Automatic annotation (TrEMBL):
Name of one Pfam family that matches: PRAI
Domain N-(5'phosphoribosyl) anthranilate isomerase (PRAI): 4-207
GO terms, molecular function: phosphoribosylanthranilate isomerase activity
Domain of life: Bacteria
InterPro entries noted in UniProt: Aldolase_TIM, PRAI_dom, RibuloseP-bd_barrel, TrpF_fam
Pathway(s): Amino-acid biosynthesis; L-tryptophan biosynthesis; L-tryptophan from chorismate: step 3/5
Keywords noted in UniProt: Amino-acid biosynthesis, Aromatic amino acid biosynthesis, Isomerase, Tryptophan biosynthesis
Keyword Ribosomal protein: no
Family: Belongs to the TrpF family.
Name this protein carries in UniProt: N-(5'-phosphoribosyl)anthranilate isomerase
NCBIfam families per UniProt: PRK01222.1-1
EC code: 5.3.1.24
Biological-process GO terms, alphabetical: L-tryptophan biosynthetic process
Length: 210
C-alpha cells in the first residue's frame, strides 16, 4: 500500500481527519504567498496533535536558514520538502539540519525528468510535481497534473513520490499507472484554496489505500 501525504493542513479538524484516515505524512506549508502558509505558532499547535507514527513534513520554497530553523523548532519537523531549490543547496540543508529531505522536481516534459538525477546524493526522496506556468506565484498546490506516462520506464535515482493534480477520483488510477510508492495531495482535497475538506481527505486516503 502506498504512503499518502496530506499537504497544506492548517486546522485541527482537518489534521485530525488526515491522521484518523491513515495518512503516513502531514504537510505544513511555510511560504507566505501560499493560502496554506502557517506561522510558527500555528504550526506548533498543530504539530502537538500529530502522533509519533505520522511524519510531519515542512514545505518550503528555496528557504533561508532562519525560516527553516524557526519551522523545524516550532513544528518538530521529521522531514523538509524543498521546492525551487538547487541540488547543492538541498545537500547543504540536509547536512545542516539532519532531517529527511525531499526535493520537488517540476515536470511537464520527459526532459524535465533529467533534473531528478541531479539530486542523487543531495536528497533522500524526490517528489515529482506538475510544473506551474512561468511567473506563477506558487510552485505547486494549483491542481495541475502532468502526463503520468512520462514516468513509464524511468529509472528513479532515489525513492520518490507523486504529486500534482491528484484527487479522490484519480489517485487510484495514478498509483496503478505509475506504481508510486507515495502520493501527495493538497488542492485536490480542498473546498476552496487553502480550505481542506474532511470528507475529501477521507475519500482520498480510502482511494489511495484501495
Amino acid at each position: 500500500m502506498p504512503l499518502a501525504k496530506i499537504c497544506g493542513l492548517s486546522t485541527p479538524d482537518t489534521l485530525d481527519a488526515a491522521i484518523a484516515h491513515g495518512a503516513s505524512d502531514v504537510g505544513f506549508v511555510f511560504f507566505p504567498p501560499s493560502p496554506r502558509h502557517l506561522s510558527p505558532d500555528t504550526a506548533a499547535g498543530l504539530a502537538a496533535r500529530v502522533p509519533s507514527h505520522v511524519r510531519t513534513v515542512g514545505v518550503f520554497v528555496d528557504p533561508d536558514d532562519r525560516t527553516l530553523e524557526q519551522a523545524i523548532a516550532a513544528a518538530r519537523l521529521d522531514a523538509i520538502q524543498l521546492h525551487r531549490t538547487a541540488p547543492d543547496r538541498v545537500a547543504h540543508l540536509r547536512r545542516s539540519y539532519a532531517r529527511e529531505t525531499w526535493a520537488a522536481v517540476a515536470i511537464k516534459t520527459r526532459a524535465d525528468l533529467d533534473a531528478a538525477r541531479t539530486y542523487l546524493g543531495a536528497a533522500d526522496r524526490l517528489l515529482y510535481d506538475a510544473k506551474t506556468p512561468a511567473g506563477a506565484a506558487l510552485p505547486g498546490g494549483m491542481g495541475l497534473r502532468f502526463d503520468w506516462t512520462l514516468l513509464t520506464g524511468f529509472r528513479h535515482p532515489l525513492p520518490w513520490g507523486l504529486s500534482g493534480g491528484l484527487d479522490p477520483a484519480n489517485v487510484a488510477e495514478a498509483i496503478a499507472r505509475t506504481g508510486a510508492p507515495l502520493v501527495d495531495v493538497s488542492s485536490g482535497v480542498e473546498s476552496a484554496p487553502g480550505a481542506k475538506d474532511v470528507d475529501k481527505i477521507a475519500a482520498f486516503l480510502q482511494a489511495a489505500a484501495s
